Amino acid sequence: MSNAFIEMLKNRRTIYNLGDSLSVSHDHISQLVKDAVKHSPSSFNSQTSRVVILFGEQHKKLWDLTKETLRAIVPAGSFAATEQKIDSFAAGAGSILFFEDLNVVKGLQEKFAAYADNFPIWSEQSSGMAQLAVWSALAEENIGASLQHYNPLIDNFVAKEWHIPEHWLLRAQMVFGSINAPAGDKDFMDDEQRFRIYQ
């Protein structure tokens, strides 16, 4: 069975060995990200996802500041491995910061009180779908990416450095760039453990 969308999902992999050579322009990537997020689903069409895209020196600044933040809490004897990992992110071409707008979530909780407890959950689901959409769109352009979660450790300096509104909650950081080495093999658990089908 062949399905273009399934093939696209298969093509989306975590790429750690990234470079900063891109075959497309910053404008093209920015529009790709905008379109992917804009057309991702959200509960009540709430459109809670917010995105900041960092290229070049702004991207490197994110990971330099992340490294210094981690240096303050990671034991010195263990920091070399942490530094190597952060430097590998900085070697990429850019980063996409995914946020959720808590003001929208709060407004929905007030407007639809019966579902109040669910709106934060649905917000997280919307964010995940936006992240997958962007990641898959990048993979279709042969741009590698990996998804990182250094929040909430980096929330304060990110908010200050890039003038992020207080009601935007950082959920993930996606590093992207040229693919210097492909992803390794991926193992899957048995279908019988994951799926039940009744007919």
TrEMBL record:
The Enzyme Commission number assigned here is 1.-.-.-
According to its UniProt record, where is this protein located?
A: Cytoplasm
Instruction: Offer a single GO CC term for the protein.
Output: cytoplasm
Choose any GO biological process term that the UniProt entry carries and state it: cellular response to oxidative stress
Which residue range or ranges hold the Nitroreductase domain? 9-177
Q: What class of enzyme is it?
A: oxidoreductase
Alphabetized, the UniProt keywords read:
Cytoplasm, Oxidoreductase
- Highest rank taxon of the organism: Bacteria
Stored CDD domains: Frm2-like
Q: Please indicate if the UniProt record lists Cell membrane as a keyword.
A: no
User: Per its record, what are the GO molecular function terms?
Assistant: oxidoreductase activity
For this protein, the record's InterPro entries field holds: Frm2/Hbn1 (IPR033877), Nitroreductase (IPR029479), Nitroreductase-like (IPR000415)
The record's SUPFAM superfamilies line, in alphabetical order, gives: FMN-dependent nitroreductase-like
- State what protein this is by name: Nitroreductase family protein
What is the species listed in this Swiss-Prot or TrEMBL entry? Moellerella wisconsensis ATCC 35017
Lineage of origin: Bacteria, Pseudomonadati, Pseudomonadota, Gammaproteobacteria, Enterobacterales
